[in-house]
Amino acid sequence: MDRRVMTREALLAIAHEILGASDRWFSIRIEHISHAITKVTNGRTLSTQSGEDVQISLSSTFGTGLPVSIDLNQVNPETLRQATTLIAHMAPPRRSAAEIEPDDPDDVQYFKYTAKPLLPVTLWHDSTIHAMDMARGETIPQLVEQLHGAGLVGAATVGSLARSVLYLYKQGLTSFAEETDNEVTVTARSADGTASGWSGMANRDWAQIKPDMVAAQAIDLAERSRNPVALEPGRRVAILGPAAVAQLVYAMAPAFDGENTRLGGTPLSNRSGVGGRTTKMGQRVFDPRLVLLSDPTDPMGGFPPFFELYNQIEFYNYGYPTAPITWIDGGILENLAYNAHDAALYRLPAADVPSSVRMTTVPGTKTATIAEMIANCEEGVYVNRFSDVMVLDLHTMMMTGATRDGCFLIKHGKIEKPIKNFRFTDSPFFSFNKVEMIGTPERVAFGAPRSQAERERRWPKLPVIVPPMMIQDFNFSALADAV
Amino acid sequence: MSRNAHALSMHRIVRIPVRSRTPVATILPDLVDPEHLRILARAAVDAAQHAGAEYTDVRVADMRQLRMDWDLPEIQPYPVSLVRLHYGYGVRVRVKGIWSFAFGVDPTIDGIAHAARTAVDTARGMTKIISPTSDFAPAPVLRGEWATPVEIDPFAISPDEHVKVLGAYSDAARHVENCSLDILESIWTREARVFASSEGTLLTQQTMRSSLTLSVSAGHALRVNGVSLPVVGMEPGSGGFERLLEPVLQERIKVTAEEAARLVSIPEAEANVGRYEAVLDGTIVGEVLGATLAQALDLGRALGLNADGDGTSFLAPTEQVLGQSLFSPQLTVVADRSVPHFGAAKWDDEGVATESFPVIQRGCVVDYFTTRSNVSALAAWYAKRGQPLRSNGSAVSWAVTTSPVSAASQLVMTSGTTGMSLDALTRQLSNGIIARNIRRWQSASTDQQLSGGAVYPQSLFEVKKGQITRRLLSGVLQFRTKSFWRSVTACGDASTVQSRTHLDWRGETHSRATQPVWAPAVLVPNMDVIQIGRAL
Questions:
Q1: How far apart are CA B434 and CA B443, in angstroms?
Q2: What is the ipTM of this complex?
Q3: A40 interaction partners in chain B (CB closer than 8 Å)
Q4: Which of A215, A332, A398, B455 has the highest local Cβ count within 10 Å?
């Protein structure tokens, strides 16, 4: 079977060719991505995109060498030689070898980029590679038929990804991962444009994707969203579906940046300075039932076991191993994200911010289905997902966005009627302290809404596994006219 | 000594590490000969047509980018540099009315021909299960070459000289007490792009784009509660290094820094929630325009083609929008891809000649951004106006590895009458607010139909009887798009016009969409302010 992307050996051969062309030390990153994405709208193909891209990055951004990166996508020897010459010209070491002292950041050993073991992970599924050729022929007609049968207009995206990536340092650190991923999303809308429903599913293994279920959920939400009525904005009980919770959790990842927290820049900073502490480590910051962890070996939420370029904070430790880490346990802040240098300094584990994360509950916690949450809600609002969640203030993680594709008034334990969308303005560091009920975690699809940060460019996003939640006093700050 | 050489010599040298004195261009591989790109493009067209395509178009490009980011120069003593080389192509085919697109980076005839055949095979497979799409508007067959006029090639300047010039600007800001450069970024992108189609069009464009960003700030070292203002004259555009050497720039930096220093000294208070008469500067107006109307007028979005992605548009259905007086008569917006605007090009990514055209005239929507594959939806409107049915040159492939979509390029909002300076607008407020600049790393948050949103100004001031009285903290502006644009009662004059680039990354392959807007300050009677507070 054509694996679509280069193997470890093929990537290593290119990397060694680059290293052999220069006596300078810099990091090398080679990524090979293959996509197969089909989008249909209103029963017609909007686009079918198949293709591959290669990115080779040479970077002198480790140590205190002058920060220069060169990205190219050609693997011919002459271009690679020119790139190594260029980086040597633009990024000479700041000191000569004779001037380097022990523990000097210009010392190539400073960050100890020697060979290191990586956690074994399984992120590759042949079923996905097979699907890249076959799925659109079977899945797309099925989705179109379901939407058409429901008398709705709609749009769907079926996409698969294969990726291999290698980070290599002259000192020996070699980190490689290969992964597959898939996402199927469906938006169903009434022909008059007054009702909309959305659902999605993401999994590294295509065999676990259930497109018919995705379409059925989107159709159901659209059907139930017809003739929405306006409701006054304000603080209300909110039942957030997993897709909505995931958007808040994903957006709050930078709050766990340890160094920024120490500088007073996040909600996890201890700005009062009580006890001489600069962070809230050891303090309760979320509901005592909540647990937040990142584990590269998570069967559903696994990810490459090293620092990656795609994550949300520039850590300059790409390829450096990361370990499983528990951020929040029983609502208590247990860890923050530190790069390799700071982690060594503070004698803490090195880990990137939780871009890939599982939010779950402490053992023994009673969980509830969304249906049970609704049954226990006297009056509240069900939110399927949000549009364009944006962090307004890093200090509080105050966010804004609008509800989308399924918003309902709940009264006396039942969904009473569809309501018009709201804009919300709230912080998960408030919301996750006002949790009434928690459901069972699941991996969430994000779709491909536009994003405003270049670093969030990965599609599908790394696995985010979260439960639905029932939250008190969620701040719906204004009505949104959008459907 | 030439004007530009003189300008270079005028810059003071600041203490910075010496980097390479060798121009980047002498080390980088040259851009691929355009003739080679044309050979590849024709090979792809031939391969697709031979495989059974009824229509094929191809974009092949070789790109070089030099980027220098200098964030908080007083803390970070040297800029971060990025050099990017990207060579790629995209092949779009139509088979029995079904479109398909394939992309790749293998720069060989075999590689691009394989991509072309893959696209045809995929489209043919889909013909069995999907209905064909609507008509493809005709366009003249064109052949030609065009290049952005460039006086000084930034790639022929050494990194050391780039840093010297940027350092001199940093120095200019620091000469004003309590001030420094906040953001200093220069991105130079040189690209050779060939478009070829099975209709016989063959076009070559060599473009040079620059994204220049420069803000000065006064106040807190980490800018938590400081005042930051962008410097006029440093904005995205098309042209060479000479754009960075305008003799007036240092004076503008000084004037901007002095204004920031004056504004930061105004007493602070927390913003109060409420609805206010407001003056918004050109940066904020540009951001709101780029985040709302510019996206809403994308015809593909208005037709619901992106419902499962970004969303749809409140400016739909088109027949209920075109010609209607939806917004303030003060509002006129023109699309313009001519030099020196960002994204200046003679032809778009479907080989259609670009032209300046209005999308909103005195509050009426009169056009959308179209492509050849979606413009037929406007046939009735064009017929009513006696215009031929043709795309207006708005097809954009942000990268050649993405399929062309309808999108705005440079937008220009018409300014008001002379005499309406920012101060003059402010004097019209009896009890209101004035908002200046967008908070760094922020853009407007909009909903899925762009019918409303929120924007976080960098600085917000209370105005009483025409005078700024207090600097308000933690205030966010919330708006409903239609009401906002309907309520504009006055536009500032040319002196208030500022550039703002709304940036986002779109689609699964995540291409960077750059939406620069030139806009004047405006006066609106009702602006909602919410307070996001700091306590936690």
A1: 18
A2: 0.89
A3: 130
A4: A215
